Amino acid sequence: MTVLILGGSGSGKSAYAEETALALAGEGAKYYLATMEAGDGEALERVNRHRQMRKGKGFVTLEQPRSAGEALSRMGEKAQGATVLLECLSNLTANEMFSEEPPLSWQETADRIWGDLCRLAHGVGHLVVVTGNVFEDGVIYGETTAAYQRALGALNRLLAAEAGRVVEVVAGIPVTVKG
User: Fold this and answer.
1) Alpha carbon distance 160, 34 (integer Å)
2) CB of 157 within 8 A of CB of 113?
3) Is 8 exposed, middle or buried (0-12, 13-18, 19+ CB in 10 A)?
4) Peptide bond preceding 102: is omega within 30 degrees of 0, i.e. cis?
5) What is the pTM for the complete model shown?
6) Neighbours of 169 (CB within 10 A)
7) Helix H or strand E segment including 2
């Protein structure tokens, strides 16, 4: 099953995603695909906080800032029944889009990531994807940021359509949207 968990910054979506992944995995293999590249102190602080949150829970962490589908080969035979928590699609989208100069178009970015997500979803037992709501602040951004928002929005819609369950976490409260 694929589960999409979305919410704003600080909403509690990561903690809820971990609980969901643990419940789905039972005693099975659990992988945490970490997509954030800690380029500054604030990012490093967030990475450390997430490491502490999942400490002792049995997750094998795979640093995967791009090309999420490649994680399947890193998991080997355990992938088929594993539960994978991808944290988070917002970072993955930025990493993919801006890893080349000039940046990829929003469509190229969405297509590349969607292919990887489909491979992951079909190659593992359960896929839990965390993503952000980056569309609710009412601000009109420049062309580059708007392209990023289009890519992430397209991926969120595709995932929501395919997922067995979609949950939005609002102020720490999970609200089931689908499933």
Assistant:
1) 21
2) no
3) middle
4) yes
5) 0.92
6) 21
7) strand 2-7
Taking a C-beta distance cutoff of 8 angstroms, is the pair 120, 78 a contact?
A: no
How far apart (Å, rounded) are the C-alpha atoms in residues 135 and 152? 10
Does residue 36 contact residue 65 with C-beta atoms inside 8 Å? yes
Strand order in the sheet with 2-7: 59-63, 30-34, 83-87, 126-132, 2-7, 165-170, 173-178
Residue that is written with structure tokens 């490491």 in the block: 51
pLDDT tier at 50 (50, 70, 90 boundaries)?
low
Hey, what are 99's tokens? 């890893």
- In total, the chain counts a number of residues equal to 179
Domains of the chain by range and CATH? 2-178 (3.40.50.300)
Alpha-carbon separation of residue 172 from 6, 12, 32, 122, 175 (angstroms):
11, 5, 21, 30, 9
Percent of the chain whose pLDDT exceeds 90: 81
The b/e string for 77-89 (b: 16+ C-beta within 10 A; e otherwise) is: eebeebbbbbbbb
